[in-house]
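hi!! sorry for the late reply, been swamped w classes. u asked for the two structures so here they r. pasted raw, havent cleaned anything up. first the sequence of the first protein and right below it the tokens
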Amino acid sequence: MKTYIFLFLLLIVSSCSAAQVEGEGSEIVRLTVIDSGSYSTTKEKEISFYQIGNKDEFESIFRKIHSAQIPPPSIPEIDFNSKIAIVIVLGQKPTGGYSINIENDAKLEDGILSVKVNIVKPQPGSMLTQAFTNPYIVAEVNKNGIKTINFLDSSDILLKKIDLMQSSQIEGGK
């Protein structure tokens, strides 16, 4: 009986070691959503992705997103010495029922941050707000080790790749 217990424990320990080796070189990075909504006042017609690395650029796009709100919301504080902002704007939609979400845990491997993006569309036949919407989401992430951001859909299809080394300005578009 002791032999079986020993073998069972040995099997568990070796399984745990194998799992650690498989994930070696990658880590989970936490994205923090700091703003989201359905009524951005940006002019994008299609989905757009932005990485923002400084306060002036962030304040500019944040004001653009909220330009129709009176009074406008306070601009969130981000420490751009250690973080970057990520903004995704879905683009103008003809009705309500659309939204955009991101997974809070992103994989960082070899300098590539993979951000999973979930685009929600209204179900056919559902009752919808009859107004133009422009859903958006704003998140911050620790920039340590990030060279590239890959935005992926729920099927792991690449939606957009942004190389942080190419630009210190707002980079967006489809």
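now the second protein. again sequence first, tokens right under
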Amino acid sequence: METTLNTNRPMSFQKNKGSQGFICFICFCSKQAHSLGKRLVQHGHTAERFFQINFCQSEKFKLTITNNKHKMATGIRWGILGTGRIAHDFVTAISVVPQIQIAAVGSRNESSAQHFAQRHNIPRYYASYEQLVQDSSVDIIYVASPNTFHKEHALLALNHNKAVLCEKTFTINAAEAEQVVDLATRKNLFLMEANWMPFWPLFIKMRQVISEGLIGEVEFLQANLGFKNNHELNPGLLDPKVGGGALLACGIYPVTLASFLFGDTPTSVTAQAKLNENTGIDETVSIILKYGDKKMASLSTSISNFLDSGATIYGTKGSIRMDQMHCCPTKLTVYVDGEEPIVYEEPLPTKAPDAVFNFPNSEGLVYEALHVMELVTQAKVESDVMPHSKTVANMRTMDTIRQQIGLELPTH
């Protein structure tokens, strides 16, 4: 029997028919947990276990997600660098937040910029990225260009004193990532990789369950992420000139998940791949990461096959299953040895009635945007959730994987 919780409702609980106890979800603080626990007992209910979710490292973000009250400065203005599919999804996702202002968009050609601006009601558009970063009304640049141009465009924005949120995969390699981080550090400007995964409420819940020791010491991770790309409609994923391939498109997520569980630097990396016979790009990659003698991650990624894109985390006392896609989880099941499974479910954030997305669960891009907005408002230059060190370390792991599968990508 499973107990299901809907984490979208603060201070709420659910009980399945036939269950002898309650599993309780508490949203804000331990004081509330204690108060609600008393009320449950007073009403004749037995609380089996209490959980507390911290949606981020601050009350502000927790309030943002649970109550949809965005307590942040309204003077932070975004500039969108790029007009591709992920840029569309990002702007569409954050458009539901009244306090988020998108000031301008830039593209390599005027017609693309104009069309994007009209579609998303953006007041200014530019026919070059240089013009965009020169706009004095823009505070932060969202870099959504192809992978091979991330370093160039992030440096461009930083050199014009703009804060930067740069799409994953952050750069082509660790050397490029270090260049970007170094400039941001020297100029004391905010910089973060737009890896949305660690900002999802159930990803945060997963980390809390582990930190509380419910499944014991984590020893093994099995995680996949893959889909069957239409190579004719989306040829860019096979093009090395724009940083195509499964590893950069999807593989960064299981690699990042492993880093959250075991640390940023594996002691050994083993990888094999199926390469495209025409372009040499990686279509499917299988990876084994070891962390000392006892901990290991088995990872797979693909752009030519639909994989079971969930993840299972195995501990000495139980396991955690992240269903569907572990990079944007909406369901989490906790299995503790000898106890009933506990299921957490989190509905997707609100979207505009006419919103259309290119990628699954893109509504959740708002999580990372709100995190960035809060940090920029507080004059922070680095995220404590997705810090520079993790981004660079993950790129080093990706470099090792590419070396082992014989893949080289051009740099700019």
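hope this helps!! also noticed smth abt the second:
Confidence is low (pLDDT under 50) at residues 1-72.
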